[in-house]
Design goal:
Number of helices of chain A: 10
Shape of chain A: rod-shaped
Distance between the termini of chain B: 17 Å
Number of helices of chain B: 3
Radius of gyration of chain A: 36 Å
Strand order of the largest sheet of chain A: 3-2-1-6-5-4
Oligomer: heterodimer
Structural class of chain A: alpha+beta
Mean pLDDT of chain A: 89
Mean pLDDT of chain B: 84
Structural class of chain B: alpha/beta
Distance between the termini of chain A: 82 Å
Chain lengths: 419, 117
């Protein structure tokens, strides 16, 4: 037990402050080493210590000239020094009744001189001391006491700075987590909650943000209208909430145009007009790349009609592993009035798969340039037969060593499974 | 008159050369989101020109943000009355331009080995 006369009146709050500054048992540190070295040299003493007074021990943040890393609180030198506001000085411990019985004085160390200035927080709690120690008695002038108190102030400034920067980091982390949660919610509202159940079809999808804290412009959608199934994958330029608003517009425009349009080209023409109208009042011009594929059921698979607006070609993976591109080049939506879109057709037979990806994949960088579609085609040729396997082949590629993805990635896969 | 490259984004620079009412913007390196401000700064006041050539021979990489720059420039060309063309894109860049139908909208002249016209 620590003798009660060594316990300050604010002990509970003081110990809370010691915890708050989170300095106990931290590794040695250049800033404090410099201060103790400077103190020892300035006062011409062999030992200088930055001590933190814990509940039942005195721990040394920096100890110049002594091996020990901590001592008991009971001997009561630093423990006494934290009781007052001014440096606590013992000029000759052999004759000073406050220190004569101290084991450091009686023992091997043969301490004779001690001067310790409290490390006091802005709200008045003493965490520990900056102290200087000698094995010979010596005088300590008022001016020297002043210097020691100033140096203790430098130690305290350093501790305050660390506390402030740790708080800033914690705050940043918290804000970052909030932003990520918000981005996730917003993004979730831009993607279908679940992929539809369609006879003869198996779907899989991927959304992979480049930055978890920022809502991206990539989207995918799969929905059923009449007897057809519509797959749309797109990328609105830019990021953040204003891009997300355009993404929401694009997705709802595609869904509503699909109800009456004759095919994907007309859906895109409608989207183009909607985006141009929307752009008129916008601060930042947004455009979108989109690929739309309408799949109508056949006896042995699906008849596909595709139209694209500045989007990479879709990939058709044959049941036998052959990969072909379903090219559907056209101007991005939201660029200019007269934009016209072409339709391309293809058959998806039972066992065949269709994969639509955003340009985040082909624009990913490798040590030799842009990734392009060739590596994805290779992986798809060797992947398992399911829609999910096609998505996993894509995921494996963009997470491979040496591939640096800087944009969001969205993808949808459809496999004809027969009926 | 030739202005020095804008030093804002690492890995990207625009070199603008004004000769009378003909302006050449040579894009160098990788044009992505980080390079957009430099591109925009270099296109300041282009409406005073009659002919604008964007020299793509030394452009290694173009992403959707970079493409947006060219699309915006196209809209300005049509609104401001200057002629715009793209010169000498490398195969990767040309592929992206074709994919987005840029070649149907902005004339593209020459391959990577051609002059900037």
């Amino acid at each position: 037990m620590v003798s009660t006369e060594l316990i300050p009146g604010d002990e509970a709050e003081r110990l809370a402050a010691v915890r708050r500054y989170d300095v106990l048992d931290t590794p040695p540190d250049g800033a404090f080493e410099r201060i103790t070295r400077l103190a020892a040299r300035h006062f011409g003493v062999p030992i200088a210590i930055v001590s933190i007074v814990d509940a039942d021990r005195i721990w040394f943040k920096s100890h110049h000239g002594v091996e020990a890393e901590e001592t008991g609180r009971d001997p009561g030198l630093c423990a006494s020094a934290i009781l007052g506001d001014r440096p606590w000085v013992v000029e000759n411990a052999a004759t000073d009744p406050r220190a004569m019985a101290n084991p450091l004085v009686a023992g091997e160390l043969g301490l004779r001189f001690y001067a310790g200035a409290p490390l006091r927080t802005r709200d008045g709690h003493a965490l520990g001391t900056l102290c200087v120690i000698d094995s010979r008695p010596r005088r300590f002038s008022e001016e020297e006491a002043e210097t020691l108190a100033d140096l203790a102030g430098v130690v305290m400034d350093e501790l305050e700075l660390r506390l402030a920067s740790r708080r800033t980091v914690e705050q940043e982390l918290m804000l970052r987590r909030q932003a990520e949660a918000l981005a996730r919610q917003l993004q979730a509202s831009l993607l279908p909650p679940e992929l539809p159940a369609v006879e003869g079809a198996e779907f899989a999808a991927l959304y992979r943000p480049a930055d978890a804290g920022v809502v991206g412009g990539d989207f995918y959608d799969v929905f059923v209208t009449g007897d057809a199934c519509v797959l749309a994958v797109g990328d609105v330029s830019g990021k953040g909430p204003s891009a997300a608003a355009v993404t929401a517009l694009a997705r709802s425009t595609i869904r509503s145009a699909a109800l009456w349009a004759s095919g994907p080209a007309e859906i895109l023409e409608n989207l183009n007009r909607s985006m141009l109208i929307d752009r008129a009042g916008a601060a930042v011009a947004r455009y979108s790349t989109v690929l739309i594929v309408v799949a109508r059921p056949l006896a042995d698979g699906f008849a596909l009609t595709a139209a694209g607006a500045g989007h990479p070609p879709a990939l058709l993976v044959g049941a036998g592993g052959g990969v072909a591109e379903l090219d559907a080049a056209g101007p991005p939506a939201g660029w200019y009035e007269e934009a016209a879109y072409r339709e391309r057709s293809a058959r998806l037979r039972t066992g065949d798969r269709l994969l639509i990806v955003t340009d985040g994949v082909i624009e990913a960088r490798t040590p030799t340039g842009m990734l392009g579609l060739a590596p994805l085609r290779e992986r798809l040729a060797g992947a398992g037969p399911t829609a999910e396997a096609a998505i996993e082949a894509l995921r494996g590629l963009v997470e491979a060593d040496g591939v640096r993805v800087t944009d969001d990635i969205a993808a949808v896969a459809l496999r004809a499974v027969g009926r | 008159m030739s202005r020095p490259a804008h030093p804002g984004a690492p890995g990207f620079a625009v070199e603008r050369t004004d000769r009378g009412d003909a302006v050449t913007l040579a894009l160098v390196g990788e044009l992505d989101l980080a390079g957009v401000p430099d591109f925009e700064a270099a296109t300041d006041g282009l409406e005073a020109a009659a002919d604008v050539t964007v020299d793509l021979r030394r452009l290694d990489f173009l992403d959707s943000s970079g493409l947006g720059c060219l699309m915006t420039l196209d809209l300005r060309a049509r609104a401001g009355g200057f002629a715009l063309r793209l010169a000498g894109p490398r195969p990767d860049v040309l592929g992206l331009l074709r994919l987005c139908g840029v070649h149907e909208r902005i004339p593209i002249v020459g391959g990577p080995e051609a002059g900037a016209a």
